[in-house]
Fold each of these.
Amino acid sequence: MISTTELPPVPTSPPPRTLSPTELPPWLQNALAALDRRVEEGALSVPLLPDAAATLLLMTEDEEADLDRLTDVVRSDPTMAAQLLRIANSPLFVSRYPIASLRVALSRLGMFQVRQIALLIVCDTKVFRVRGWEQAMRSLFGHSVLVALFAQEIAKKARMNADEAFLAGLLHDVGVPTLVQALVEIEPRVTSFREIDGLLTLLHPRHAEIGARLAAAWAMPPRLIEAIGYHHEPHLARSDGRNALVLHLANQLAGHGNATPAPAAPSGTFEVAREASGELDFPAEAAALGLIHADIAELVAMRQALTTKATTIS
């Protein structure tokens, strides 16, 4: 086993203050119970893809997609058009020369990178947006981009599909804003509740399941859906769990590896997430992915550069 003293340190955020049910006002307890029922009954709505994004994702599955039609689809959504150009010129998608037109951007990037950018835009502008929770959602989106970048690097070292790993990392926490938005719809007073971090721990046990539902609704590949659904418990994945292992390790490397979800209560109700010891010890995931100590050390050393990249987007 590799101890953390042998690895460069990974900065971690202090654990959020946990809340017990007795600390919650009755109206919030009732709202959480209603949310729990929606989840159990499969009645929880997930964000829909905007028409332009849905068409773009479908078209980019074909490497020979018509460039003029792709350009027209993007232009039909002015927000997506502006954001695509901004992200295409960011350090995340390095280009030797500035990209000034949509058509040039689409031709240079390639289909999968266009797909990545489309999902980045949807997550940024549609999913990680909850009234009253702006700061928490921006922080969570930034974390998701960083996890995506780490997942991409881990997948390269493990000789797996790095592009899909990026998408899985980007979407791994989409269940959180989906749950928060549903809670706000049930009880608008949630927007003024100040114990945001504590409330997030109450939602934590459900977020992977809901994230997988959203990924399925967006027609993501089955292996990506499974990775999202089991990224905190990769050993429970129905396949070999390698994609979920990539996300699990990326999540730790991104600095959020010191909290683990509580096991689900027999009744299916929300529970407070337990805090682990805070040690960052990755050998189990590394060994399962065929990585060695040097790979982990290199990944940890990348953190500052990847964080800088992530901040250009988030």
Amino acid sequence: MIKKINHIGIAVHSIEDTAKLYTDVLGLKLKAIEVVKAQKVKTAIIPVGESKIELIESTDPEGPIAKQIERRGFHVLMRNQE
């Protein structure tokens, strides 16, 4: 049984542009923006209750997230243990 959705990851072209939907329209707060050089991404965390939305922007046009955006990808992490 699924106990919790840890986060929903959404690959985006621009964190700054996309974050406006969550902050300005939905009234959520942006917690942190971080560059993860090893994965060639910039991420933004937006808490939603006990879960979070993670916006993921590629920092490299040939990186895995840039390729995922071409396929319209996202991921959901679910926890099945307490």
Amino acid sequence: MIVEGPGLRPLRPAAGREDIDLFVDLLCGARPILLKEVLDGIEKRVIIRSLWMAGGNRKQAAGILGIKYTTLHEKLKRHGIRAEKPPTPFAF
């Protein structure tokens, strides 16, 4: 299972409420567009997707992303993402 932050809630590759709120704010002009914030959000989603594709295997996820394992580890730490071993298909 791929989890995030202090609450350790499961993450899915789909867009979350934060993404929708940011999108609405940007469309309405409620706040300025911060390129760094947008790029960080994209990077985080791509990392989560690669972990999901690799079944939680960080080494494989780094390979999917074309980066070194240590670089992925730094990015996981920066984004507050924890990758745990996914349950087996037979676990209930």
